[in-house]
């Protein structure tokens, strides 16, 4: 089945130790997103890629970076995780169908714990 | 500011009762509105979108521009409807930004 895969599902890191979260997709969608979701809060868009074009949200901290080496893979790098970065990180994809607002397909998420 | 508000964190109804999950938005233009659902141990997925004007699993949602609302309704709730529901907005200006509400957990009791 075509899908969005996130690895690992659970990630534990230490305060200040760089960490990378991975997302891959078999949908061949041209848009990929990273969201941060803290407990009982809305998923918050960090950035998205349209093909190779990177689009950062204005309020995304510099501590968060992303890479998309090819259509299938997208990575979220947290350079120096703080305790406040503990959250669920959701990857999503969509296809640019030329209409405003596109259905997004989500991965299962990676829960990040910062010790 | 663009914002989506879901005033209820938790909604509990009995099986067979009508259910309405409220969603209000703040946006100066004409947005596209969505409802996403997350069942237990499953990933977030699209339930329905305003532009399609369709009923999915018995759920409907009507965009009320005057009240800036997009409430989700179902006349007879089923136990399998128990899930987390998120209302979401995409600005109708191109681009791919989507703004989510904080979600409402629906619990349908037998």
For the secondary structure, the number of strands of chain B is 11
Biggest interface between protein chains, with counts per chain? Answer: A-B, 29 and 27 residues
Helix content of chain B: under 10%
Number of helices of chain B: 0
N-to-C SSE string of chain A, H for helix and E for strand: EEEEEEEEEEE
Number of strands of chain A: 11
Report Rg of chain A: 14 Å
* Low-confidence runs of chain A: none
Shape of chain A: globular
The H/E string of chain B reads: EEEEEEEEEEE
Q: Let me know the average pLDDT of chain A.
A: 93
What value does the Rg of chain B take, in angstroms? Answer: 13 Å
Percentage beta strand of chain B: over 45%
Q: Categorize the overall geometry of chain B.
A: globular
Briefly note the structural class of the backbone of chain A: mainly beta
Helix content of chain A: under 10%
Mean pLDDT of chain B equals 92
* Estimated share of beta-strand residues of chain A: over 45%
Oligomer: heterodimer
Structural class by sheet pairing and helices of chain B: mainly beta
């Amino acid at each position: 089945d075509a899908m969005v895969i996130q690895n690992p599902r659970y990630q534990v890191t230490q305060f200040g130790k760089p960490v990378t979260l991975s997302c891959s997709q078999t949908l061949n969608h041209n848009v990929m997103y990273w969201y941060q979701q803290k407990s009982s809060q809305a998923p918050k868009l960090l950035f998205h890629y349209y093909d190779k074009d990177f689009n950062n949200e204005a309020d995304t901290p510099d501590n968060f970076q992303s890479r998309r080496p090819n259509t299938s893979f997208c990575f979220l790098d947290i350079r120096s995780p703080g305790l406040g970065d503990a959250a669920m990180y959701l990857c999503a994809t969509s296809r640019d169908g030329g209409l405003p607002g596109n259905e997004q397909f989500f991965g299962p998420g990676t829960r990040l714990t910062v010790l | 500011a663009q914002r989506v508000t879901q005033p209820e964190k938790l909604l509990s109804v009995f099986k067979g009762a009508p259910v309405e999950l409220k969603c209000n938005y703040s946006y100066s233009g004409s947005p596209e509105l969505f409802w996403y659902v997350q069942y237990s141990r499953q990933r977030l997925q699209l339930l329905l979108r305003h532009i399609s004007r369709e009923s999915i699993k018995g759920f409907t949602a009507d965009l009320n521009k005057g009240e800036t609302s997009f409430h989700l309704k179902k006349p007879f709730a089923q136990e399998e409807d128990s899930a987390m529901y998120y209302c979401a907005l995409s600005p109708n200006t191109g681009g791919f930004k989507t703004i989510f509400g904080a979600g409402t957990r629906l619990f349908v009791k037998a």
